[in-house]
Amino acid sequence: MLDTLYIDAVEQADALLKPKRVEVLRQLAEPRTCTQIGQVLGDTPQAVYYHVKRLQAHGLVSLVEEHRVRGIIEGVYQAVAKSFWVSPAIVGRLGDARTREAQLGLGFLLDLTESLQRDLARLASGPPTLPSFGIAGDIRLAPEDGAAFVSELQRAFGEVLTRYGGGEGHAFRLALACYPNLPPGEAE
To answer: Which SUPFAM superfamilies has this protein been placed in (predicted)?
Structure first.
């Protein structure tokens, strides 16, 4: 089972993004039959089978074993990944590109996030690679400290990029983002 399946085809997204299929897929975190899923969801095995076959046809579910039950061969299915990420590129950029001239803008962070998502999904779907790590933390800034903080962070980040940005060795991407930490539900 993959850790992450990055969905970048409209057909895959269409097969997945139906409420009932998402429920079925969640049940397939562990190998299960359509009968077992139907019992949990209150559906007939035939109704579940229809959704499982659609998911399987688009590479989201796989048949892991079969066994005979009362003269009928019953399949045992499992999701192909632990998580599924739908690429923003499925819809693509609508309208003008986000401005990149100011790294202080939300548009730059959105572009960075899309790029990180694509890169990380590609890494997760391949063979094990060089170690990766992340650093995250929360800070509090008084309004009068904002400009000094940004300046100091840009200087420190710039020094790291200058020191390790060229030369020989394994290539890594280094990203830094700072954004308001809204409590859950506040932005909705």
So the answer is: Winged helix' DNA-binding domain
